[in-house]
Amino acid sequence: MLDPSRRGKLWALHYTRATTEKPYPLELTNFPANADFHPLGIELVPSDPTGVSRLLVINHRRQNTTIEVFRIQLDPHSVVLAHETTLTHPSFVAPNAIAAISPTEFFLSHDHYFTRRKVDLVSFNEYPGAGVHNVQTIARNIAFANGVAISADGSTLAIASTTRAKIQLYSKDKTGVKFVSSVHVPFSVDNIAFAGDQLLAAGHPYLPEFMALVKRKSNRAPSYVSAIAPRQTGLGDSWLTRMSAGANVTTTFMSDGSFLGTSSGAFVDMKTGTMFVVALYGSGVAKCDYGM
């Protein structure tokens, strides 16, 4: 980056289905004043037994990459993040995305480390200053391992492979993680997120135009979001088991870049039926009605 001393920010906005307030930068309390802050992936952690909610943030500092742990403090009109601890480990080489599975465990994807593109399972102690407890690599040699997500029933770990334009699906249980199948999408997939029974995948449908934007030879690049769901519906079987009978891949959002370009992620508020699509380059966020 041109100026690593310039800090990045995390933003929040308050909304209903019909209204959207102006976004505002979040206050970071107790965060070291002299520390770099360049956030990439973020993840809400399941509440611990005391009801405390936390946010994990991948922080690409100039010396090394860390995972910052913040306690979320809510009031009716604002959100404040109180810094609790910084997680470091030699394996945190090029982390890209993060998916929490418990208050003290998360999956972490690495998008490049020579040829070792991988996903790790990281365990940490929840009290401040305790640090990383264990790191276990659970998937290797994934072409540009990018977004990661866990299904609501806990049966499935999904990993985006950007250069292969596909999402790899793994079974997940107490004994480990095992590759099962993959689903192709019509674009270079970036980040993924589950929305009920659907897996949302956002990405870049035409890489030459995307690279032209990155190199400032163009002022826009297209966006694409797909929803992936099992053809088999009904209760009883896990999401991954139902996916084995086939998947439906439908288009949820498209733009030539004039409305919103370089889509890098999409997520849904299931209570209000609202979808947000975020851009990798640019300041835009699209808010859409989402039909379940």
From TrEMBL:
Keyword vocabulary terms for this entry: Calcium, Disulfide bond, Glycoprotein, Hydrolase, Metal-binding
Cofactor requirement: Ca(2+)
Gene Ontology molecular function, alphabetical: arylesterase activity; metal ion binding
InterPro entries on file: 6-blade_b-propeller_TolB-like, Arylesterase, Serum_paraoxonase/arylesterase
Residues reported in the UniProt entry to bind Ca(2+): I42, N96, N146, D190, N191
Name of a matching Pfam family: Arylesterase
Free-text remark on how the cofactor is bound: Binds 2 calcium ions per subunit.
Family in the record: Belongs to the paraoxonase family.
Protein name, as recorded: Uncharacterized protein
Gene symbol of the encoding locus: Pon3
